[in-house]
Design brief:
A hairpin with a 4-residue loop joins β10 and β11. The chain has 2 helices and 28 strands. It is mostly beta strands and 350 residues long.
Length: 350
């Protein structure tokens, strides 16, 4: 998912904090949602019933609707992303809202106030929120007014500025004062200076760029088209292209997960009307390719638990009622299958 690299950084911060008692400071006790797996259910259009479930792999306990349970009200949006940064969990809904919760107890601590259209993801830089947003649809259902919204402060508040970007921005990645934007429809990476809140550089890439991630110390972006997938890395010192790899994987989607030994799991789908779906497995560093690790229909999200070496595959079940989550071991055997919420698509490992 969109928060893979951000989550890895947060894990390092959390470990350092938990062991800070060695330096004479008080250790913060873990909250009940600080460990385990968060399962994001988008919800259904019109009902705006997106929610988050919590799964404890040690006990096998699945807890549904934890936002509503902890805040005594429904989330009331179509969830697009969960972003864990700066000791805050940001719940991004493409119905125009961003809510901030304490990741330990899921209590709401703030929100972005109005003036968003179709937010997709979020990053933090220089004490600000940067939110990618498709902008409103025009009469032809295009999005010519896409932008990155800027909010002063990490705990929400009003949108102070909208930075015009290329059509349909997706994932964001912050490094120092720079915010990388994956502008999917026009095959560009646009780099925002967080201090001046302006675009400082634009880099053209192959395919549709949708997801940033880190491997072996480099920043990569994943992109795809009908016939291939593309991986492009960047020099972070001078903001230029570094390495490029093209792989012959047809029908790739935007959903990927980082697995063991630098493996990358990619959801594929033929789309309407057959929806012949699958999971391809590859690597940037040795170009090993398993074109059909799993096949099926209704695959809608994927995640990976590095500690347990288990793959989580979400199935929308055609949005006919609740979806399903299947856990596989890395050899492909089924560990567990469970019913989850509507439109499951995101998996965040704590």
């Amino acid at each position: 998912m969109k928060y893979l690299f951000k989550n890895q950084l947060w894990a390092l911060v959390l470990i350092a904090f938990l062991f800070s008692c060695e330096n004479g400071t008080e250790e913060r006790p873990l909250g009940k949602y600080d460990t385990g797996i968060l399962l994001m259910n988008e919800g259904t259009f019109g009902a705006n019933d997106g929610e988050v479930f919590h799964f404890d792999p040690s006990s096998g306990t699945l807890t549904p609707n934890i936002f509503e349970a902890e805040n005594n009200r429904p989330y009331a949006g179509l969830l697009e992303d969960m972003v864990l940064e700066e000791d805050r969990l940001y719940l991004v809904a493409n119905t125009g809202k961003v809510e901030i919760v304490n990741p330990g107890d899921f209590k709401s601590s703030g929100s972005v106030i109005g003036d968003l259209d179709q937010p997709r993801s979020l990053a933090t830089a220089r004490g600000k929120l940067f939110i990618s947003d498709y902008g409103p649809y025009d009469a032809s259902f295009n999005t010519p007014d896409s932008y990155v919204a800027v909010v002063s402060g990490l705990d929400g508040g009003p949108v102070k500025k909208k930075i015009e970007v290329s059509n349909k921005p997706e994932d964001l990645f912050a490094f120092g004062k720079y915010v990388f934007v994956a502008s999917s429809e026009e095959s560009k990476i646009e780099i925002i200076d967080a201090d001046t809140e302006t675009i400082t550089k634009t880099i053209e890439v192959s395919g549709t760029p949708v997801q940033f991630f880190e491997q072996r110390g480099d920043l990569w972006v994943y992109a795809y088209d009908a016939e291939n997938v593309y991986f492009q890395s960047f020099h972070l010192d001078n903001l230029t292209k570094k390495n490029f790899l093209q792989l012959d994987i047809a029908n790739a989607t935007s959903r990927i997960a980082l697995g063991e030994d630098d493996r990358i799991y990619i959801l594929t789908s033929t789309g309407w009307p057959d929806y012949k779906d699958g999971i391809a497995v590859t690597s940037i560093f040795d170009t090993t390719l398993i074109p059909s690790w799993k096949t099926g229909t209704g695959f809608y999200g994927i995640g990976y638990d590095q500690d347990r070496e288990e793959i989580y595959v979400a199935n929308s079940k055609g949005f006919q009622g609740n979806g399903e989550m299947t856990i596989y071991s890395k050899d492909g055997s089924v560990v567990k299958t469970m019913e989850v919420g509507r439109g499951p698509s995101g998996i965040l490992v704590r």
